[in-house]
């Protein structure tokens, strides 16, 4: 099988500060202030060409961070990611400039991706048509609703014909008609043998669409396998987790943090 994405020992550390003073002091005396927070801890996985991989996990588990690292828009702290082909990320509002109009954003993104003026002139109407934004395409993006931003982001990304498509929650803010149209487009991509990473809380869409599921928990991989194997386990986990009391949830998190620290000390090579 041909590999499309190889992520090796990806760790992403953020600094958390309790106030602005700490933030400023840390700039002057690096490493003296703030608390280390690991959004991802030693995450390794591979996706084959033409596979659709869904990222699932509770809020804050690291799904978007991992998607953004694969897309090259967030740097990893350590580890490496190899992406074979042109990745194109659709995250609501990611890479869109609020002060520019929708049309200018399309042109800017295409220029950044290396398209020629001629190719941009050809592609632009297709993107605008897919977005169904009508006259709003000439309004600044900061005046768009989140659904409108998502339409623009999705339309640009699918129409640049990427080898790897990364879709981060883009369908959750759009209306049902647009979501259906987008899912059809994603199916088209799948049938063309393209690789996809799909971040969503909609397990229904995951079932319809993905081959594999990467389940993240507190920045660590809890499970990676086929949809049939992982999704029922994740659903069962969610059902059980919601029954826990606040204290039990805290204890669960504490246990996960211990695991995380161990993992960071002894990375899986
Ligand atoms: N720039 C940042 N600075 C500090 N912490 C950050 C930053 N970006 C993300 N984080 C933290 O990293 C963790 C993972 O965030 P991420 O957005 O990847 O989670 P997620 O699984 O996509 O969550 P959700 O389901 O809520 O979208 C969160 O705790 C978040 O607060």
Oligomer: single chain
List the bound ligands. Answer: adenosine-5'-triphosphate
Order of helices and strands: EHEEHEEHHHEHEHEEHH
Counted beta strands: 9
CATH class assignment: Alpha Beta
CATH topology: Rossmann fold
* Share in helix: 40-55%
For the record, give the distance between the C-alpha atoms at the N and C termini, rounded to a whole number. 22 Å
Return the average pLDDT rounded to an integer.
Answer: 89
- Share of residues in strands: 15-25%
Number of domains: 1
CATH superfamily: P-loop containing nucleotide triphosphate hydrolases
Strands in their spatial order, largest beta sheet? 5-6-7-3-8-9
Keywords: ATP-binding, Nucleotide-binding, Translocase, Transport
Domain ABC transporter: 22-243
InterPro entries: AAA+_ATPase, ABC_transporter-like_ATP-bd, ABC_transporter-like_CS, ABC_transpr_TagH-like, Bact_Polysacc_Export_ATP-bd, P-loop_NTPase
Pfam families: ABC_tran (PF00005)
Descriptive account of the structure:
The chain is 43% helix and 25% strand. Strands 5-6-7-3-8-9 form a six-stranded mixed beta sheet, sandwiched between helices. Strands 2-1-4 form a three-stranded antiparallel beta sheet. The mean pLDDT is 89. The protein has a single domain, classed as 3-Layer(aba) Sandwich (Rossmann fold), CATH 3.40.50. It is built from nine helices and nine strands. It binds adenosine-5'-triphosphate (ATP). The site of adenosine-5'-triphosphate has 11 residues, from strand 2 and helix 2.
């Amino acid at each position: 099988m041909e590999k499309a994405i190889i992520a090796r020992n990806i760790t992403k550390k953020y600094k958390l500060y309790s106030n602005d003073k700490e933030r400023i002091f840390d700039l002057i005396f690096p490493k003296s202030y703030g608390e280390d927070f690991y959004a991802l801890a030693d995450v390794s996985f591979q996706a084959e060409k033409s596979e659709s991989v869904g990222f699932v996990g509770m809020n804050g588990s690291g799904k978007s961070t991992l998607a953004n690292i694969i897309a090259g828009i967030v740097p990893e702290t350590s580890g490496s990611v190899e992406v074979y082909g042109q990745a194109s990320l659709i995250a609501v509002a990611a890479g869109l400039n609020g002060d520019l109009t929708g049309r200018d954003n399309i042109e800017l993104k295409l220029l950044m991706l290396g398209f020629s003026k001629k190719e941009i002139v050809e592609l632009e109407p297709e993107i605008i048509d897919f977005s169904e934004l009508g006259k709003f395409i000439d309004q600044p993006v900061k005046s768009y609703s989140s659904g409108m931003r998502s339409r623009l982001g999705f339309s640009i990304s699918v129409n640049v014909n990427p080898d790897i498509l990364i879709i981060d929650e883009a369908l959750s803010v759009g209306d049902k008609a647009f979501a259906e149209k987008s899912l059809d487009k994603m199916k088209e991509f799948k049938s063309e043998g393209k690789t996809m990473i799909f971040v969503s809380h909609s397990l229904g869409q995951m079932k319809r669409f993905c081959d594999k599921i990467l389940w993240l928990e507190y920045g660590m991989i809890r499970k990676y396998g086929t949809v049939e194997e992982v999704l029922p386990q994740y659903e069962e986990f969610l059902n059980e987790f919601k029954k826990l009391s606040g204290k039990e949830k805290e204890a669960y998190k504490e246990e996960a943090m211990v695991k995380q620290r161990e993992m960071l000390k002894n990375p899986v090579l």
